[in-house]
Write the structure tokens for this entry.
Amino acid sequence: MAGLVDSWAQESLSGLERQHLRRFLEPLESPQGPRVRVGGRDFLNFSSNDYLGLANDAAVIEAGREALLRHGLGAGASRLIVGDTEAHVSLERALARFVGSEAALLFNSGYAANVGVLSALFGEGDVLFSDALNHASLIDGCRLSRAQVVVFPHRDVQALEALVAAHPGRRRAVVTDTVFSMDGDRADLRALGELCTRERVALIVDEAHATGVLGDRGQGLSGFEGVEVDLHVGTLSKSLGGFGAYVCGTAATRELLLNRARSLVFSTSLPAALCAAAEEALLELQRPARRAALWARIHQLSNGLTRLGFPARPDSAVFTVLLGAPERALQASARLREQGLLVKAIRPPTVPEGTSRLRIAVSAAHSEEDVERLLRALAPAGEVRAA
């Protein structure tokens, strides 16, 4: 039997190799940060979602260490059994205050949050309207809900309006990322909010790549635009530098998810140490100096990429250099690596066919010279593009 499964695996791996789509792990030999060590070499890292440089922050680590000594390593069970601690409750209260909602509920990852929320709240007879470039966790959550899924063209609110008119249902919701993880562009959240209010459709947003980046305190695009949403999903693993996720909404919604979201009910809960570290990171995230440093680098990189002939907008901390074929993206990534720059190639199925790319993520921990070094290395690619 084992030989049969192995033959299937080998066949599939050969297909990935032929398409330049096979991936490999590369363990870090250093903490996460703007500079990392991989395979015995030091690199300037532009592939991390640690947008505010909090993954290795001393105060955040110390808060986690203290909670580790107090609560131990593992939670031991799910939240509903004996896996709940005061650290979980305290973080949820802090997140609810941060977002401005009645309540918050922790999940073990952004993927678990989106799958759990959508499958718990929607079912047969319901309609979910999903942006074409939503993250895989939103796509899978929509599928698992068993609701009718209507995909609308990326950021096209006019097309969505027509689809909403054409698809009645028992419960209906628009589901979207606020900052899209692979392109770094923003949803047209104001227009979505107006449409949802007018048509009595719920609005569910994933603020994973906007938290800590946008908003007067880093609350995300909904806070930045002043748009009220029905459910706000966020992550502890990007700007907050840790691990886990949360959903903010009403107290009743929280209680329903606590009872029905299978990815929460049937999972051992987050370790208390991660919760304590995240609460400290939430305080650090709201310091204006960190976001000011990040936005200085965002504008610097956006202006530099534009000068090189690459389309770029200062919408978020994520930038894309589109290269088309997977092998071209791999070659470009390898050339940058030779110069000590870690910029990973992104290929299908993470992105659509024909849109393989370099995905560049900038951090508050990068210096002005770090970004200039990257731009100098990208200059030859810009010259080829212009020709």
